C-alpha cells in the first residue's frame, strides 16, 4: 500500500464546532524577562502596581513560576532599580572639571529617574549593591578624588547626592500621581501653586513679613532651576573640603583619616 500524507485524510472540523485558535508559543521565563516586564508595569502604572502576581499576569503564567528566577518582590525591586540606573551616563574623571562632572552625572540620573516614574521610591532607605549602581558610585568617587576631595568627605558626599536625587525624584513622582486624565504637569502645578500663592499672600504680614514679602519667589515654578540650585549648593560644599584639605584626608568637622 502506497504511503499517504498524514494531512491528506485529515478530518475537517464540524461546522457547529469552533476551531480552537493555536496558542502562541510561550516565551521561556528568565530573570531578565521578568525584570523587563516589571519595568514596563512600573512605567505604565507606577510602583504600587508592581507585584509578583501582576508581573506573572503580564507573562501569562502563575506567580509561583517567577520564584525560580526571583526570590521575592524585594529582590525584584532591587533588580529593576539596577537595570534602570544602567541608563545613567558616566564620565571620564577630569581634575579640571570635576565639579561640573559631578553635576553632569546627577543630571543624567535625574533624567533616568524621571523617565521611570516613581522608581526612586525603590531606592529610598536602601544601599544599592547592584553592579550598575556600584559603577555610578565608583564613578562619583573617582571624580571627587581627582578633584582632591578627601576619602571620608567623598564617601559622605555620595550618600548625600543620592538622597538629594531620590527626594527630588520622589516629590516629582508624587505630583505626577495627582494628575487628572488629560491634565498636564504644568497645568496641575499652576493650579496647586496658585492656591499656595494666594494663601501665603493672605497671611498676617506682622507675623510672617518675609513669607508675605517673598511670595513670588517662594512659589515660583522652577523645577529644573530648583534642582540645579540644590545641586550647586551640595557641590560647592564638597569643594570647600577639597580646597581646605590641601591634599590631606581631613574629615568633616576638622578630623582626619590616616593613610591614602
Describe the secondary structure blueprint for this structure.
Elements: H1 31-45, H2 52-58, H3 63-66, H4 73-85, H5 98-115, H6 120-123, H7 131-146, H8 151-177, H9 185-202, H10 209-213, H11 215-218, H12 223-245
Helix pairs in contact: 1-2, 1-4, 4-7, 5-7, 5-8, 5-12, 7-8, 8-12
Could you characterize what this model shows?
The chain has helices at residues 31-45, 52-58, 63-66, 73-85, 98-115, 120-123, 131-146, 151-177, 185-202, 209-213, 215-218, 223-245. It folds into 3 domains: 31-83, Arc Repressor Mutant, subunit A; 87-177 and 223-249, Tetracycline Repressor, domain 2 (Orthogonal Bundle); 182-218, no CATH class. By secondary structure, the protein is an all-alpha fold. The longest helix has 27 residues, at 151-177. The chain is built from 12 helices and no strands. Helix 1 packs across helix 4 (73-85), helix 7 (131-146) crosses helix 8 and helix 8 packs antiparallel against helix 12 (223-245). Helices cover 59% and strands 0% of the residues.
Amino acid at each position: 500500500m502506497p504511503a499517504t500524507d498524514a494531512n491528506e485524510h485529515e478530518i475537517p472540523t464540524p461546522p457547529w464546532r469552533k476551531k480552537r485558535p493555536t496558542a502562541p508559543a510561550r516565551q521561556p521565563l528568565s530573570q531578565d524577562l521578568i525584570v523587563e516586564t516589571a519595568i514596563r508595569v512600573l512605567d505604565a502604572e507606577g510602583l504600587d502596581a508592581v507585584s509578583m502576581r501582576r508581573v506573572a499576569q503580564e507573562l501569562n503564567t502563575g506567580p509561583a513560576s517567577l520564584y525560580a528566577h526571583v526570590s521575592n518582590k524585594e529582590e525584584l525591586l532591587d533588580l529593576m532599580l539596577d537595570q534602570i540606573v544602567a541608563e545613567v551616563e558616566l564620565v571620564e574623571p577630569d581634575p579640571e572639571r570635576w565639579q561640573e562632572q559631578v553635576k553632569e552625572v546627577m543630571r543624567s540620573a535625574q533624567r533616568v529617574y524621571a523617565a521611570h516614574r516613581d522608581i526612586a521610591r525603590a531606592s529610598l532607605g536602601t544601599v544599592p549593591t547592584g553592579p550598575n549602581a556600584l559603577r555610578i558610585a565608583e564613578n562619583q568617587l573617582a571624580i571627587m578624588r581627582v578633584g582632591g576631595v578627601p576619602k571620608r568627605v567623598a564617601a559622605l558626599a555620595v550618600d548625600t547626592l543620592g538622597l538629594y536625587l531620590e527626594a527630588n525624584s520622589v516629590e516629582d513622582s508624587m505630583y505626577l500621581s495627582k494628575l487628572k486624565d488629560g491634565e498636564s504637569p504644568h497645568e496641575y502645578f499652576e493650579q496647586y501653586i496658585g492656591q499656595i500663592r494666594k494663601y501665603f499672600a493672605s497671611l498676617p504680614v506682622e507675623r510672617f513679613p518675609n513669607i508675605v514679602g517673598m511670595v513670588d519667589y517662594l512659589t515660583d515654578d522652577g523645577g529644573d532651576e530648583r534642582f540645579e540650585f540644590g545641586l550647586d549648593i551640595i557641590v560647592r560644599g564638597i569643594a570647600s573640603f577639597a580646597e581646605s584639605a590641601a591634599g590631606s584626608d581631613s574629615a568633616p568637622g576638622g578630623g582626619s583619616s590616616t593613610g591614602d
